[in-house]
Design brief:
Number of helices: 2
Helix content: 40-55%
Order of helices and strands: HH
Number of strands: 0
Strand content: under 5%
Mean pLDDT: 89
Distance between the termini: 30 Å
Low-confidence stretches: none
Length: 63
């Protein structure tokens, strides 16, 4: 599942770190990009899960 190209993902990382005033050490950049990609993939699974329009979220969540 390819959500964004590597170049686009890097551009998003650069924009986010600049906007937040953060820095990512060059040694950590590949790991940060990998985690960002994994998080986007997990989010896509949740967002794409089909739900009926009649369903409402639970008001109380219990394990």
């Amino acid at each position: 599942m390819n959500l964004l190209s590597d170049e686009t993902l890097e551009a998003h990382l650069d924009a986010a770190t600049a906007a937040l005033g953060l820095s990512v050490a060059p040694d950590w950049r590949p790991s940060v990009l990998a985690h960002l990609k994994a998080t986007l993939q997990a989010g896509r699974l949740v967002a794409d899960f089909p739900l009926d329009d009649e369903l409402d979220p639970a008001s109380v969540f219990r394990p």
